[in-house]
Design a protein that fits this description.
single chain, alpha/beta, 9 helices
Length: about 250
């Protein structure tokens, strides 16, 4: 794996591109880590400076307590990118990362440095609520089985008891953050939103993905790919093409 260049505690730059004209802030899914975006950084450098967020409670931050509040996470991430860099910033988030990206975008816009675009992948709109989601309250085995069914984690992880014990607190905290989140009435971002989803995603229907249009004052466009919740693992080339097109590459 390419070694990361740290930008504070929260940001990893796996392919630093200081001369790039645009930055892309990448937010992982529930249970995910910054390293998920190593291939994205490699594919887009040197035209894009990819900033991959590392949440507490995993990998090199595994000794830290994971955060189970999405708004607190958004506060921390927004602070982390308040580094004086004047280059345009776009935000990409997958699953939990899409919801978090929405809240980060709201904060950046409030501070007068809003993103040029939000890419929301594998997540229904913040306004599309499914009552009764309680994964974070389930037993360890039930929680892990739910994660396993989404097919986004290497099956070997679940066969390693020590590794499972290590990642379980972060997974549970991430699900708590998502499942206890409530959109505040009147909240809408101003930036354009590009929505990406799989046509067989149990977590997001195409109709729920369409609902992102009600969460922004800007334009939206929707890209539907064959696949499930982690459609982008198999459709990386197509997803990267969407990113390049919207980033003007």
């Amino acid at each position: 794996m390419t070694s990361a260049v740290d930008t504070g505690v929260w940001i990893r730059r796996y392919q630093p591109a200081p001369d790039a004209g645009v930055r892309l802030l990448c937010l992982p899914h529930a249970g995910g880590a910054s390293s998920y975006y190593v291939p994205v950084a490699a594919a887009l450098a040197p035209a894009v400076d990819v900033l991959a967020v590392q949440y507490p409670g995993r990998q090199d931050r595994r000794s830290e307590e994971p955060l189970g509040d999405l708004r607190e996470l958004a506060d921390r991430v927004a602070d982390a990118v308040s580094d004086g860099d004047e280059r345009p910033l776009a935000v990409f988030g997958h699953s939990m990362g899409a919801l978090l990206g929405y809240e980060v975008a709201l904060r950046l816009e409030e501070a007068g440095r809003g993103p040029v675009r939000l890419f929301a992948s594998g997540r229904r709109a913040p306004s599309a609520v499914r009552p009764g989601e309680d994964m974070h309250k389930r037993t360890d085995s039930a929680l892990l089985e739910g994660v396993r069914r989404l097919s986004g984690t290497d099956a070997q992880v679940f066969e390693n008891d020590e590794l499972v014990r290590m990642v379980l607190p972060a997974i549970r905290a991430d699900y708590r953050a998502v499942e206890t989140y409530e959109l505040r009435p009147g909240d809408r971002v101003r930036c354009p939103v590009t929505v990406l989803t799989g046509d067989d995603d149990p977590m997001t229907t195409v109709e729920e993905a369409h609902a992102w249009s009600a969460c922004t004052e800007g334009p939206t466009d929707l890209h539907v790919f064959p696949g499930g919740h982690f459609y982008l693992n198999d459709r990386a080339a197509e997803v990267l093409a969407v990113l390049r097109a919207h980033l003007g590459l």
